[in-house]
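User: I'm curious whether this sequence folds into something compact or stays loose and floppy. Could you predict its structure so I can see for myself?
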Amino acid sequence: MSKVKKEEFKAFNVLVIGDYCTDKFVYGGAFRLAPEAPVPILNPTYSTTNPGMAGNVIANLQALGISTITLHNSENVIKTRYVDDRSGQILLRVDENDKIKRIESKVLQQISNNNLYGIKLDAIIISDYDKGFLEEDDIDFICKNNSNVFIDTKKIIDKWAKYASYIKINHIEYDRTEYTLKHLNIQDKLVITLSSDGCKHKNKTYPVQKVQIKDVSGAGDTFLSGLVAEYIRTKDIEQAILFAQECATIVVQKSGVSTI
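Assistant: Here's the prediction. I'll summarize afterward.
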């Protein structure tokens, strides 16, 4: 990995705003099918928990040494994945408390001129899993009133995102919205992740090192964290993309949702 030390990131403050959850992984052995239905029976042996969604972005930024300020839901959203320990295959995912309350307007209004509660912000990350914490108007307000705003959203991107600095989007999301995105004239702001093929920005493809993948859960959050961290350090989006890919390559070789 690039020889970047935590000390080089410690001077930066990043606001992460979006949907927060707890990721839970229940591991065990699946050796037979249930007699009453063609589904595997899992004998659980251990479990792990960690922050997920925006929480995973926060954890990755902090692992790099960046100071984070967070605005997220208070509801306890839990994503539980049941995993066959031998193959690493997820057999089932159960989501609890999936709908959450919208951010309060008076809190949203405080995010202005890259400042929140008197703290200077070097960047703002919108980690929107479309659970209800941020509506389109909220994202539009943040982008119009701040600079260095990075968006990762499960919403269908439209004109409310055009004032963002950069938008991370995966290739599946891009393919289904390509026509709309081209007419918004934001192509230069898009960083399109291509799974094991790397990513694309401004029609240039950045290949990624081929590794044995154990789990891609949370890899997009890690990529986003690395992208923002290196961009505010260097102001170079190409260098930031390469660093982000290195970060994501590390975590996909680990089981579960992992940090850099």
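Summary: The chain has a mean pLDDT of 91. Residues 7-251 form a domain with the UDP-N-acetylmuramoyl-L-alanine:D-glutamate ligase fold (CATH 3.40.1190.20).
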